[in-house]
Each structure stands twice: as structure tokens, then as C-alpha cells.
Amino acid sequence: MSSVERSRLQAWFLGIIAFAVILFLLVQARFILISLVIAIILFSLTTDAIGSISRLRIGGWRITNWLASMAAFVLISSVLLALSGIVLVQVNTVVTTTIAYTDQAVSAIAALFAWMGPDTEAAVASSIRSIELSGYIRTAAGQAGNVLSATTLVILFVGFLFAERIWFDTKLENLMQDKSRARQVSLIIRSIIRRVNHYLLVKTGVSAVTGVSVYLVMMFFGLEFAAAMGIVTFVLNYLPSVGSIIATFLIALVAYLQVTEPAFALLIFVIVGMLQFVLGSVIDPMLMGRTLRVSSFGIIIAMAFWGAVWGVPGMFLAVPIMVAAMIICSHIPAARAVAILLSREGLPEIDPGEQFSPGSHLHHTAAHSTDRNTEAAE
Q1: What's the start-to-end Cα distance of the chain, in Å?
Q2: Is the dihedral of CA 173, 179, 182, 187 positive or negative?
Q3: C-alpha span between 145 and 374 (Å, rounded)
Q4: What pLDDT, on the 0 to 100 scale, is given for residue 103?
Q5: What burial class does residue 284 get, using C-beta atoms within 10 Å of its C-beta: 0-12 exposed, 13-18 middle, 19+ buried?
Q6: Domain ranges of the chain
Q7: How confident is the model at residue 335 (pLDDT cuts 50, 70, 90)?
Q8: DSSP SS3 for 57
Q9: Mean pLDDT of 1-19
Q10: What secondary structure does DSSP assign to 177-235, as a single string?
Q11: Which of 342, 346, 347, 338 is nearest to 322 (CA)?
């Protein structure tokens, strides 16, 4: 074996070992890492707003960067605590009512198989009763109790990020030891922030409208769990493709368990499905534009991977992480193939007219792709 082949084999082995170590650390420290990623996303959402507010003048008085950061931190903390309280209240309501509905739910689901004969209906009912449903529900409620702990940790992370905000550029210059290179890395980071922020803002708006629509539909038909189903729909809509499907089936099931009429459940399914289609397949892509230019198959793979590593929170964070990885890889010649695979049309660049030279250096590519976006944002 030649020295070149030996070096290549060693590099592969070291890469596999490094990946295994990183994967182990991601799993073991997932609670802290998930909270950190959420904090970074929330911090990035307010970065541009803070910069704009800090340039405002009220008479002869200018709003300082510190004051704008404090206002943003208080707002984020208040919203997170309020959302955590709402989630805990709704979880407790759902758990209490679901346990009371257990017998009715077993009979209703078994009745769907009545056309196959009484023996089949009885067997289905017996199988469902053998499942420790109440135990699963209480376990889920216990997991929901971790929301408050995670919220507190996220607030702490956001607070420290705001405290360190003014030193980011200085630290980046000292780290790169080259102002020009540090500027290009900063532009790449800003382009990641802009695309992720646009995705999250559009997704939040569409998900909120969808959740409110589901709430109004269930209230119109006099169904219970209207608020809970609205919140569930809002949350699940952050999962591309599969989230809206799960939410629609779940709402139809909840409607059926309350009314036990298949025709009524089908009506709810059709109404909610139409709402999901119009808002998710028409309005969402129209507002998103070309911002989220990532592969649909790549999204499913990313959701499966991060779901296996971080559980349900990982599935929600999969798309922002994938967008960031695609942008970073698109500015690194050696990793450009990965960016092409992650992109929708094989064009991972932000600007449609951007061209990439495989032999170009990182900062040349970054400058070409982000300067115009920075000027537009400013």
C-alpha cells in the first residue's frame, strides 16, 4: 500500500471516529444543545430589529444599543414564559379530559370495524384496552413539564448572547486575524440569519393563521379541545409536509371521538384539509419565494436524522440547521457538492445570477454572494 493510499485510509478512519464522537456528544448533551440552538435562533431574529431601533432618534435623544437589547430580551422572556404557561395549561386539560374519554374512545374506534363482524369489533376493543394509554399520557405530560426548565435555560442563553453582542465583530477579527476575511465570514453569517429569519417569520405567520382557523372551525361545530387543537396545529405546521398531514388526521380523530359519526369526522377532515392545502401549499410558497431553496427529500432526511438524535425538538430545528449547512457549504469549494445536493435545483446560492468558480477562495465567493444582500438590508 502506497503512502498516499495509507494517508487517505487514515483520513477516512479519523473522519469516522470524529463523526461518532460528535454524534455521541450531540445525543448526550441534547437538552443543553437544543436550548442553545433555540436561543441562537431567537437572538438572530431580533438582531436586525435591534440595529434598526438603535438608529432611531426621538427628538435629540437616540435609543442606545444597550436599551434596545434590553427591550428585546424582556420581550423574548415574556413571550417564552407566556407560551410555556399556555402549553402547560393545555396539556393538563388534554390529559384530564382524555383519561375521562378513554372508554368512549375505545368504543368509537372499535365501532369502525363493526362491518367486519362482532368478533372483530370485540377483538379490536380488547386490543386497545390492553394498551396502557393512561401511562403514555402521563409520561407525555411529564415530558411537557420539562418545557419550563428548557424555557428558563433558553432565556439565560439569550441574555448572555445579548450581553456579548457588541464584542462579536471584535472577537471574529481576532479569531480570523484578518479583517477582510473576518468581514466575509460575517457576511456569510448574516446571509444565514436573513434566510433563516425569513423562513421562520413566514412559517410562524402561516402556522398562526392555520391554528386560528382550526380553532374557529372546532368552535363553530361545538367541539371540545378547540384551543388545544389550534396550538397543536400551530406547532405541527413547523414540520414541512408531514406536520400538516398529522395535524389534519389528529383533528379528525378528536372530532370522531366526540361525535362518533364517521360522516361528521370526514367533514371535519375535508374542511381542515382544505385549509391546510390553501395555506400550506398556496400561501406559504408564495410568501416564502426563493428563500427556502432546499431539497424536499433533503428536508425529510434532515428531519429523520435530527429526530433520531434530538427527538421531536430536533425535527423542528432540522430545516434551519439544514439551511445554515447549505449556505456554509456553498462558500467552501471542497464542500460545494454537499450544498448542491441539499439545494432544490442544484443552485444553493442566494442570488439567482451568482456564479461559482471551483478554484476561487472562500472570501471571493462570499463577497460576490452577500454584498448586494447586505446593502439591501441596510
Answers
A1: 57
A2: positive
A3: 41
A4: 67
A5: buried
A6: 29-100+129-176, 192-290, 293-378
A7: confident
A8: strand
A9: 81
A10: T-HHHHHHHHHHHHHHHHHHHHHHHHHHHHHHHHHHHHHHHHHHTT-S-HHHHHHHHHH
A11: 342
